[in-house]
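Sat 14:20. Reprocessing the chain from the morning session after the first attempt stalled halfway. Input below, unchanged.
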Amino acid sequence: MSQYLDPKNDLTFKRVFGEHKHLCMSLINSMLPLENPIVSIEYQTGELVPELADILRYTVVDVRCTDSKGRQFIVEMQMYWSESFKSRVLLNASKAYVMQLDKAKDFKLLHPVYALNFVNDTFEKSPEMRDEYFHHYKIVNIKDTEKQIEGLEFLFLELPKYKPLDRAAKKLHNLWLRFLTEINENTREVSQDLLSNELTREAVGYMERAAYSKEQLFAYDKRRIDAITEVSVISEAKREGLAEGKLEGKAEKALEIAKELKALGLSFEQISLATKLSMEEISKI
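Finished this time. Tokens:
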């Protein structure tokens, strides 16, 4: 029986959508309401922004590409939500838009930028939004939303809210969201729906643990630990009404995190790497 990794991990997400153009195109076309679907893309390399505050160090641009019409697409997977993530998305998309001036030399020649963001967290918590997982933002006139300043569009998808029973969604829209929400380390049997489609079947194959080297698996675990650690710190900070990340580095918090990671069965080396605690300190927990 195959063992799988989680496609929401930074390493695996990039493996699927940052290395296989046809899968990336399928994902974007199935999520974005584009009048003209993407027919080909080229990946863009290089960071859009420098390293920012500590709270953003696990938030990176996962995939950036340009299609044959010059439209740019920024695709990100975010494991936890913070209000600062909105600012990061706005900054990345705006910079991608402005950077076109180096080649275009004319505002009329600028192409639109779309920011597609998958969030493994719930951020719209009001009762009227409890079942709304798909959020599409444009720059529009407040009194007449049909009037739009074109150039930047932002989409956020709250993965925990997604329900596969939504029959109104397009087939590939559903399948890609099921791929992102159903496949993880606990998966023992993959749905036939995912295996029946050649695109999602290929993506599932890239999630098999046996397809990764020892070094890649170590990097995967490191990023998983980083996410667990960051979520724990942010949750504690919110409970105490503090700024995000303020508790980081405190010895008592490091011990709490170490206990959680130890309960998950991680090795002392991995726990030490995540918390900066010594092996002796970890053994006493």
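The mean pLDDT is 85.
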